[in-house]
Amino acid sequence: MPSQEAREGISATENPPNLHEMARGRADLLDPAHDVVEIEEEAGNAAGTTSHRIRAWLFRADLAAEPVPLAQIASLIRHDENFVWIDLDDLRREDLATINDLLQLGDAAVTSAAAEWQRPQLHRYADHFFVSVTVPQLLPQELRVQATQLDLFVGRNYLVTAHKSPLPFAERIMARAAHNPALIQYDSAFMLYLILDELLVYDEDLQHEISAEVERMEERALGTLSEAFLNDLLRFKRYLYALSALIGQHRPILRAFLRPDFSWIESAGVEIYFRDLDGRLRDLLEALTADSAAVNNAFGIYVSHVSHRTNKIIKVLTIVSAIVLPMSLIVGFFATAFQGVPVIHTPEGFLLMLIAVVLVPVVALSLFHWRRWI
């Protein structure tokens, strides 16, 4: 774990006493997909006991991870051999107020955590920093994305996670934290890495689901001419864009961790882990871009299929016209010929007309077949 001198050096030289913004995602990225994104609402007031919503675990080298009461947190984190993870589930404003009284997290960051979903951001205080990330949750049947927020307060020997919706990867975080000896060595910085790593794994799983759905869209494009499919495809394109935008907004946050003026990560000795996260996020965004291109290809397949079907219909109508028109001319000629024209108004003329009427389509179809038009 980082030395106390290194931590104090960071606090004294880098961080002003007030909240300082390090990075924030762009606010305009979701504008084109506002109709497919469902924003998480702000935290409400507490209802009933908070014991099931605030949980804390103690990690140290000589003990297995164990739950601890809130009253002991302040005394435990004063010792570098201890690390405490506090998780606030089903977040309420009173829960944040309770933890803020214990750890002095900062009113601005606490207010941000209690508000409705906001784009990812990174702020630092004198002795800790605040980072919020987005946990997208897919509603594939409705082609909607729920934007839920995970807030993290990272300080000396502690890390607080606060979320209004259940974390889909919470159990994996606990399992990795409980059985990872590096957590004791690097404490809060490494715990932050574990959480962001699980978030990235979760996002990668979502991308695999999207890729599978894109393949189904491509198959459907080959087998339908319905305009409803076109509407579904256009909505799916916005759905995919929304997911890409929500995930892509973490790029400036991860890069801010590696900036020279934010040496918390470097001094903790875990910079290599965060560089790996940044590289994996880049690869994930490239995969989502490829999925978006595949959706455009599905649109091209659909248009080509419609055009091909239209061409086949026009081809059939053209062949019918090429056969019926000469037959109509022949019948019209024999029906309107003047009196006195030889053969026309005789039984032999009628037979000649029938032969011509039968012969024209046979010759036309044979010619079309010879030219490989049919």
Concise synopsis of the structure shown:
The protein is α+β, with helices and mostly antiparallel strands and 374 residues long.
**Oligomeric composition of the shown chains:** single chain
Instruction: Count structural domains.
Output: 2
Question: What's the main sheet like?
Answer: 9 strands, mixed
Question: In CATH terms, what is the fold-level topology of the largest domain?
Answer: Beta Polymerase, domain 2
Strand residues, percent: 15-25%
Q: Helical proportion?
A: 55-70%
Structural class: alpha+beta
pLDDT < 50 stretches: 1-18
Overall shape: it is rod-shaped
List the secondary-structure elements in sequence, H or E.
HEEEEHEHHEEEEHHHHHHH
- The pLDDT mean sits at 84
CATH homologous group name of the largest domain: CorA soluble domain-like
Number of strands: 9
Cα Rg: 35 Å
Number of helices: 11
The CATH first-level class of the largest domain comes to: Alpha Beta
How far apart lie the N and C ends? 78 Å
* CATH structural architecture of the largest domain: 2-Layer Sandwich
Walk me through what this model shows:
- β8 and β9 (158-163) form a beta hairpin.
- It is rod-shaped, with a radius of gyration of 35 Å.
- It is α+β, with helices and mostly antiparallel strands.
- α7 runs antiparallel to α10 (271-336).
- It is built from eleven helices and nine strands.
- The chain is 56% helix and 16% strand.
- It folds into two domains: 4-305, 2-Layer Sandwich (Beta Polymerase, domain 2); 309-370, Methane Monooxygenase Hydroxylase, Chain G, domain 1 (Up-down Bundle), CATH 1.20.58.
